[in-house]
Design goal:
Length: 75
C-alpha cells in the first residue's frame, strides 16, 4: 500500500538503511512490519534499481524482503 506521508512520499519502493532490506509497497504484507522502521532509516524511491544503487553508494548489503519481494530475497 503506497503511503503519501513523509518519508514515503507516494514512492513504490523503500530501502531500510539499517538492514538493507528493500520493500515493494505495492505488494506490502503485514509481515513486512513497515510501521516498525524508523523514519530516519527509510529511503523511498520509484524503482527497485534506484534502491539497489542507493544501497551500493552507502555500502549497504541489500536484500529483497522475503514477504513482498521474494524474487530478490537471499537467505
Amino acid at each position: 500500500m503506497r503511503r503519501n506521508d513523509a518519508p514515503f512520499n507516494g514512492k513504490q519502493f523503500i530501502l531500510n538503511k539499517s538492514t538493507g532490506e528493500i520493500h515493494d509497497l505495492d505488494r506490502e504484507s503485514p509481515l513486512c512490519c513497515i510501521d516498525k522502521i524508523d523514519a530516519d532509516n527509510i529511503f523511498a524511491c520509484d524503482t527497485y534499481a534506484e534502491a539497489v544503487l542507493f544501497a551500493s553508494v552507502l555500502g549497504i548489503t541489500r536484500n529483497g524482503c522475503a514477504h513482498c519481494m521474494p524474487e530478490h530475497h537471499r537467505d
